[in-house]
Amino acid sequence: xxxxxxxxxxxxxxxxxxxxxxxxxAPQWWLRHYAQVAxxxxxxTLVYYLFILRDAPRALHTGHDYASFIALIGSLxxxxxxxxxxxxxxxxxxxxxxxxFVGAIVANFLGTTGAAMLLIRPxxxxxxxxxxxxHIVFFIFIIANAGGCLTPIGDPPLFLGYLQGVxxxxxxxxxxxxxxxxxxxxxxxxxxxxxxxxxxxxxPPHKQEASQETWHFDGLPNLFFLAVILGAVFVNRPVFLRExxxxxxxxxxxxxTKKSVHAANDFNFHPVREVAVLFAGIFATMMPALDWLxxxxxSLLGNNPPPGVFFWGTGILSSGLDNAPTYLGFLNALFGVxxxxxxxxLLDQNPASLIAISVGAxxxxxxxxxxxxxxxxxxxxxxxxxxxxxxxxxxxxxxxLPFLLPALLAxxxxxFRG
Length: 418
Prior knowledge:
Layout (H helix, E strand, L loop, with lengths): L9 H16 L1 H26 L3 H26 L2 E3 L6 H34 L6 H10 L13 H9 L5 H31 L6 H6 L3 E3 L3 H11 L8 H16 L2 H6 L5 H16 L1 H15 L5 H14 L2 H16 L4 H7 L1 H14 L8 H12 L7 H25 L2
Antiparallel strand pairs: 1-2
Helix pairs in contact: 1-2, 1-12, 2-12, 3-4, 3-9, 3-10, 3-12, 4-5, 4-7, 4-18, 5-7, 6-15, 7-17, 7-19, 9-10, 12-18, 13-15, 14-15, 14-17, 15-17
């Protein structure tokens, strides 16, 4: 791996700064020019890697990771858009808590991306009479992130660990106490917040209409295409077969789904286009940051660091970088500080730190819009439904710090402080 100049982390910092401040200070300008900003800064980094470092393999590897990311996100977006879940409106705080808890379990079998894409529209319809930003943000916290901490299917970092040799059920066996703690705290906080909002919200004038609404499903043949996508996740060879299977599933869903289902879901491609453009810039510009982390992690962590260092280190960087490559970076650092050569050695010598890396990557992915793939997709879908969403900084200061941070602190105090 070529050592990048630390100054080349600047394009990534500029992109994050633009995503944080431009929608707040110049929303119309950002809406017109976000593509030029993201792709332009990404191009600067790619030119540096190709012509200065002459590290084309690194750029190609990142390109393949991006193609896999977009294939998964895009195909799940299309297929889930072909499934319409009719819900009973007027969601109460208790009904909402049950929905989020079920979604947290489903995330371990469909992945956080699959569960988020399948359930976000029903969630919005369920709360349509009083839906606000807190409904969407807690959906991101629980279903799009923390819920998927029990299986390698649940979240991309855990799947990467599975590919590195972590046994499939090792995650559930060792991470369920942290999962139960974090999800339980988040559900309790959500209930309090939602209860306050529920009591303040005006009552719907037509209770008869609400009583006639029932749960129903349309577009269920798309469950087959969803199964194809989830199965394709485990296909590694030949190159791009996995992505081709996902694309085929998306096309099959698009051409076989009734137009009435897409209309009922208000389906269009704007959210996935926005995500594709912004994450193209993120994937490119974060290369120097990740490479610098991989090359300097051992010196930063020192010898025999406690699990809490890995929990907070992996977590904080996962909130600003994509959590999947951050997981790999700290996994490599753990190999370095333990001297283990294989995953089996880590499981014998330092399982607590491997648990801390896994939990930190998954939970902290909820801290910002860019911490995990489905976060920004959920935001885009909510925005399309005319829900006033917080900006990048508002997300952090109005929701992450007061609501997510207590759950993270509780997990650290109970499991990783020693």
